[in-house]
Amino acid sequence: MARVDDMTGTGNGAGEERRTGSRLRSAAVRRLRDPGVWRRGAVLSVCAILLALLMVLHRHVPNDVGNLGSLIETFLPWFGLFVPVLAVLALLRRSATALIAVLVPALVWVGSFGGLVTDKNGPGGDLMVVSHNVNADNPDPQGTASAVAASGADVVALVELKPGMVPVYEKALAAAYPYHSVRGTVGLWSRYPVGDSGPVDIRLGWTRAMRATVSAPQGPVAVYVAHLPSVRVKLRAGFTANQRDRSADRLGEVIAAEPNRRVILLGDLNGTMNDRSLNAVTSQMRSTQGAAGDGMGFSWPASFPMARIDQILVRGVEPAASWSLPRTGSDHLPIAARVTF
Fold first, then answer.
1. What is the pLDDT of residue 29?
2. Do 86 and 170 sit in the same domain of this protein?
3. Listed residues 72, 90, 116: the one ending a domain
4. Left if phi > 0, otherwise alpha if psi is -120 to 50, otherwise beta: which for 334?
5. Residue 38 sits in which domain range?
6. Tell me, what's the pLDDT at 39?
7. Which alpha helices (DSSP H) does 124-192 contain, by range?
8. What pLDDT, on a 0 to 100 scale, did the predictor assign at position 280?
9. At 224, which helix (H) or strand (E)?
């Protein structure tokens, strides 16, 4: 008799679940049949479509006024944060139309940046390189140099070197890197012989770029180290980047004329790969982070990285892995990559 009661109770529970599920489905169908569900949220729907268009057509935003296009492109991945905000507002508004519209920018963001959030690091690599803007006002240059050397890199590029601090870096890196060259405020340290070192004129009036040939075991590679001029965001002037843009154009001309088939560019370009103003450089080289990176690889500011303005770009070698290193005394994170010849 007890078994019969148990079975009856179980059956009633299952029946109740079915009735509950049926009521929920019926309520959902009634809501969808309500004309108001589709009429509400017109403003949210328009905002969602405009967001999608901005992410797709960002290169058509003019740079004539305050370099607005470059400013948008610098922080373009962060526009994805508007998607969940719009989705929540659509739910609060109980608008099916707005919810469907929000799917459009969501899919655009995934298509544009979804591949960057995954870890594409691969094994191997013939040469490991590190690039770091050490910050001229770094309170701990000794510690920064030690952290960079501890990375195990074969080649290290440092930019924003304060002349008085160069001996500190030279001494701290001497044991791991017997070959080095410093030109102006940029420098290159290497485990392998460095030759043909010289400054690169990027139209600044002082030296913030250099080129050298590193004789790696797999063959020579031309290594460029560059620190393009800083950009500023001002209330009236907007995104002031004209000097950086001119320097980027000149650097692109020099790299285009480089006779060595293998080229690596290391440094702080003060711009992201999306920024059209860097096309003279980025159009002819590959980003190691984009090709083989771990996540977005944001490098600045170190306290809360929001953009990857420090770059490792290559031509004639294959990116194997790319990542950001732990914070040092600088306001930038060091970045690293392994490449295959």
1. 47
2. no
3. 116
4. beta
5. 34-116
6. 73
7. 141-150, 166-173
8. 97
9. strand 219-227
With contact defined as beta carbons under 8 Å apart, do 148 and 156 qualify?
yes
pLDDT at 28: 47
- 47 and 76 in a single domain? The answer is yes
User: Is the peptide bond preceding residue 301 cis, with omega within 30 degrees of 0?
Assistant: yes
Which pLDDT does position 7 carry in this prediction? 43
Establish if 121 belongs to a structural domain: no
Question: Do 188 and 212 form a contact (C-beta atoms < 8 A)?
Answer: yes
Residue 270 has a pLDDT of 95
Q: What is the pLDDT of residue 37?
A: 59
Instruction: State both tokens at 276.
Output: 């059209």
- And the tokens for 90? 């659509």
Same domain for 102 and 175, yes or no, is: no
CA-CA-CA-CA torsion for 66, 69, 74, 76, nearest 10 degrees?
A: 140
Domain termination residue (choose one: 116, 137, 171)? 116
Question: Does residue 195 share a domain with residue 158?
Answer: yes
Question: According to the model, what pLDDT value does residue 1 have?
Answer: 44
Look at residue 189 and tell me if it is in a domain.
Answer: yes
**CA dihedral (169, 172, 176, 177) positive or negative:** positive
Whether residues 196 and 92 fall in one domain: no
Within this chain, do residues 109 and 142 fall inside the same structural domain, yes or no? no
User: Among 234, 309, 319, which Cα is nearest to 269's?
Assistant: 309
Positions in the chain short of pLDDT 70: 1-38, 233-240
**pLDDT for residue 64:** 77
Cα 220 from Cα 341, distance rounded (Å): 10
Are 138 and 42 members of one domain?
no
Helix (H, G, I), strand (E, B) or coil at 335: strand
